[in-house]
Amino acid sequence: MSILIKNGTLVTMNPQREVLQGDIYIENDRITAIGRAPATADRVIDARGQLVIPGLIQPHIHLCQSLFRGRADDLELLDWLRLRIWPLEGAHDAESIYYSALLGIGELFLSGTTTIVDMESVHHTGAAIEAIAQSGIRALTGKVMMDYGDDVPASLKETTAASLKESVDLLAKWHGYDHGRIQYAFEPRFVVSCTEELLQEVRDLARRYGVKVHTHASENRGECELVEKLHGRRNVLYLDDIGLTGPDLILVHCIWLNEAEQEVLARTGTRVVHCPSSNLKLASGICPVPELLERGTVVSLAADGAPNANNLDAFMEMRLAALIQKPRHGPTSMPAPLVFELATLGGARAMGLEQEIGSLEVGKKADLALVSLEGLHTQPADGVNVYTQLVYQAKGSDVTLTMVDGKIVMEKGELKTIDAWEVRKEVKKAVARVCRRAGL
């Protein structure tokens, strides 16, 4: 299958950061020509008046929580978990988690996200990965691991051995699926809900299998206090002491860091994911992104889950990431080109996939989106910097086409791999069933 996208403004994110007027040619799952391309193809798409951008990458999403949107508002993190999210996650069944995942993926496709790092719940992870496989999204995913904590409900607490075995079984089944479109990661939830034995085993297994570790850290002051009480040192220092830090650790939030922890993240090459909507809504704080970037730390952007961000729109995360640092660091602290890089190449670097995705270059995967500039909120468009348009003006609803691996998964508001009508119908039934089971 060949596709020619012609007459677009190509925001390449290549090493020269070229913005080109022209065409992009796709054969099967790869970009084979940019700028000047063959005149014909199996499918020709006129992108006149639109930006063609690399697919947006969000390295922290909870697809299992899409079902819980609007059911855990106006709470701080630990209460949010104890009173709402953990009981709801524990009440999931395989079918509810499957439709929760499809709901989230559909929303992501509609707003131009092509790749995610997904953190599932303790149970029924296989059902969510089935949804990922069916939909066509590119994903690094895994079951969440929780073997400790007085506040963890019985419906989620597992033994160390069972958690490890199920994770390895899922890895054996899914890692590398569909020519690597789906990859597996070990995902201990956070230090507060995991024994040291579990974390050390995760460290060793991740190295044995050559896969990533994905976890939360230093999101909330109460969480940090619990870690210090349990282990006698701060969160990132503890993770470093037990050998978990490094380029294969995707560490989410990283708000409450001291100088020593920031230095550890930079020295070890640990990847940091910034989730501005979630951090603001849960009153957690603001990640010190400019300081981390100044030290050379790889930072990326993501929405987190639907019950804390309430939507999964990467355009909102870009806008917030740019704005919330300016009162403290000045108007030039997070310029639009840098923020767009965090949402594309930053995410690719977090996943170790920067040679495959994150920019529009010949030989790379055909993961991309088209963004219309026809809305009144993007006018006047002539003479305006494309990064300004993308970060400060555009919305997820301006995306007109989303493509993963050379396959169109959304076009003109229509999902191609997900039956939106069926998802709406089944989500309504599933959320009633899960809330009833959770007693909420």
Key terms:
single chain, 440 residues, alpha/beta, Urease, subunit C, domain 1, TIM Barrel, 2 domains, 9-stranded mixed beta sheet, 9-stranded parallel beta sheet, 17 helices, 40% helix, 22% strand, globular
Would you kindly provide a brief summary of this structure?
Helix content is 40%, strand content 22%. It is built from 17 helices and 18 strands. Helix 2 (94-110) packs parallel to helix 3 (125-135), helix 4 runs parallel beside helix 6 and helix 13 packs across helix 16 (386-393).
List the helices and strands and how they pair.
Blueprint: E1 2-11, E2 19-27, E3 30-35, E4 43-46, E5 50-54, E6 56-61, H1 77-90, H2 94-110, E7 113-119, H3 125-135, E8 138-142, E9 144-145, H4 160-174, H5 177-180, E10 182-188, H6 196-209, E11 212-217, H7 221-231, H8 235-241, E12 249-253, H9 259-268, E13 271-274, H10 276-281, H11 289-294, E14 299-301, H12 306-309, H13 314-323, H14 326-329, H15 336-351, E15 368-372, H16 386-393, E16 399-404, E17 407-411, E18 414-415, H17 420-438
Parallel strand pairs: 1-4, 1-5, 6-7, 7-8, 8-10, 9-10, 10-11, 11-12, 12-13, 13-14
Antiparallel strand pairs: 1-2, 2-3, 5-15, 15-16, 16-17, 17-18
Helix pairs in contact: 1-17, 2-3, 2-17, 4-6, 8-9, 13-15, 13-16, 15-16
